[in-house]
Design a protein that fits this description.
Strand content: under 5%
CATH class: Mainly Alpha
Distance between the termini: 13 Å
CATH topology: Amino acid/polyamine transporter I
Pfam families: AA_permease
CATH architecture: Up-down Bundle
InterPro entries: AA-permease/SLC12A_dom, APC_superfamily
Number of strands: 0
Protein name: APC family permease
Main location: membrane
Number of domains: 1
Largest sheet: none
Keywords: Membrane, Transmembrane, Transmembrane helix
Order of helices and strands: HHHHHHHHHHHHHHHHHHHH
Number of helices: 20
Amino acid sequence: MTRTVPTDDTSAPLPEGQLKRGVLGTGGLVFMVVAAAAPLTVMAGVAPLGLMIGGVGAPLAYLAAGAVLVIFAVAFTRMTKHVSGGGAFYAYIAKGLGSGWGLAAALLALVSYNTLQIGVYGLFAAQTRATLADLFGVTVPWPVIAFIALGLVLVIAWLGIDVGAKVLGVLLVLESAILLLMAIGVFTHGGASGVDGASFTPAAAFTPGMGGVLAFAFAAFMGFESTALYRREARDPERTIPRATYFAVGFMALFYCFIVWSVVIGFGSDKVVGAATENLPGLFFAATETYVGPWAATLMRLLVISSVYASQIAFHNAITRYTHALSEDGVLPAWIGKVHPRFGSPYRASVVQTVLAVVVIGGFAFAGADPVTGLLLWVNTPGVVGVVVLQALTAISCAVYFLRRNKAASTPAALTAAIVSTVLLAGATYVLIDNVALLTNAPTSVNVVLVGIVPVTLLAGWVFAIWLRSRRPETYARVGRGADQEAAA
């Protein structure tokens, strides 16, 4: 018989192999999801490019991407109560499309989340190095900064998901507050030439560059689905996971749209494109300095660093939960999924992920690569494409599950949402790949290789699935179900 784990005594030993149970409520899950998206970094670092290529209609792209993901969430959350494993996307895909697709998705998820997380260390190192040089006149090599960040992420992850949620909560509030302060300052002063709705007109919505802005917009929601990864650690997961998913997507869509619109008003709808073109990296800082003050612009620069660090913690936790779930399923070795007896964290998976990051970052540093144009853009891009492909596969899986495997679990709304989101996410995948050069700033040959990593990874997962089905059929049958399947039996 499984005993209840007390959540108010962190010193009590946990049952062997168990993650902490019931320590994340809706708020904690939302912090994990939104922090992974790094709102301040997405806004200050990427939104100006969206304004430059898409014009004043850029705010609409975030609403459109959010609407697509809300439709997807209707089917995704409806299926949640029927998915017992802790593997998020790959558990859903295995449930609907079978273990073969589940294993292919599992490998793609591991590759995608690792590339997302490891690549962003380049951005963190570059931002921190520039800030230290500007504010304190100190020059630190970017690999040193990246390795220090690796250690700090490992420490927070080791101490448990509840500690991570608290840290992310504080950092997320701070980065959201500085963006909101900028927007309030803009609207309080009436902007550059008054408040107008030029961003929300049909003419703005259908400018030629909006396809590229949509690619950025979908990338801005990376990690929203990871609410399901924390199923074991959530309180009443059948209620908290759907709530957190809807809240996170809705918040990001509305918040992103409002903040980008405020920058349009701040510079004027007739001048913002020119301002973005002339001052791409400093657009948000200039708006903050103008409408709030120099101190707020300086604070924003510091909070960009904490924003990237928060996303690193969130993605690291997501990677280790995928690793832990695959270990439970028997796909990965049992030792890698071991849980810390006191902190309830998959600490060995954390160490393995950190070592992998050290190797990749060390390789780029040894080669003399730039932390942004090399490590960030080239390593990060396959992860962005991979996650959107996983979303599309999960939507297909939901549709198949409701139509063929469990019709009783379906509702008209859930089935319709699954079918519609399949079409929309397939379109989003095409738009992202078609505009991938905007993400990488690399030649076509490089982009073909970076995007090609996704189908090659899926194929490798399928080859492994065929081998596993013939050599270890009992493990193959457990994909996406793991320890929960045994507990149910």
